[in-house]
Amino acid sequence: MSYRNRQAGHKWERDLAKMFRNLNYPHVVTTRSESKSRDNQGIDLMNKDERKNGQFPFNVQAKCTTRTLNYPKLLDELPKEEGIINVVLHRYTAKAETKFMVTGEYAILTLEDFIKLIKGDVTIN
């Protein structure tokens, strides 16, 4: 992976952590900064000091790419935890001349988890 791609991926994770903090999840940080164990599970965001602040209600896998991804595989690789929604947050980019431009941002989750969210079967603080 090139340095530019790695930096773009890290920036997307930081952007998402900031977005969640602005959406009333004040303790969200990247797992790279907080927990090697959670990062090794493929999870990119978590609550800082989970013992004190509780677990973030989403296992987020953040991807920033110019190509489509194998979403079922990515979702399947995330840990299955009761009450936690697995989601892939994908920033899709395309090269325009010399720059990469964001062409879309997507949240991908299973239909089953989507229905749980709609029905309120999952508590999200």
Structure described in brief:
Helix content is 39%, strand content 29%. The chain is an alpha+beta fold.
Question: Please, could you describe this protein's structure?
Answer:
The structure is a single chain. This protein is of the alpha+beta class. The protein has one domain (3-119). It has six helices and five strands; from the N terminus they run H-E-H-H-E-H-E-H-E-E-H. It has helices spanning 3-22, 31-34, 36-40, 50-53, 71-77, 111-119, and strands at 28-30, 45-47, 58-65, 85-96, 99-108. The strands form two sheets. Strands 3-4-5 form a three-stranded mixed β-sheet. The chain has a two-stranded antiparallel sheet with strand order 1-2. The radius of gyration is 15 Å and the shape is globular. The mean pLDDT is 91.
SSE class? alpha+beta
Number of helices: 6
- As a whole number of angstroms, the C-alpha radius of gyration is 15 Å
In sequence order, what are the helices and strands, one letter per element?
HEHHEHEHEEH
Query: In percent terms, what proportion of residues is strand?
Result: 25-35%
Largest sheet: 3 strands, mixed
Count of discrete domains: 1
Gross morphology is globular
Average pLDDT taken over every residue: 91
Query: Helicity level, as a percent range?
Result: 25-40%
For the termini, the CA-CA separation is 36 Å
Regions with pLDDT < 50 over 5+ consecutive residues?
none
The largest sheet has its strands arranged as 3-4-5
Q: Quick one: how many beta strands? A: 5
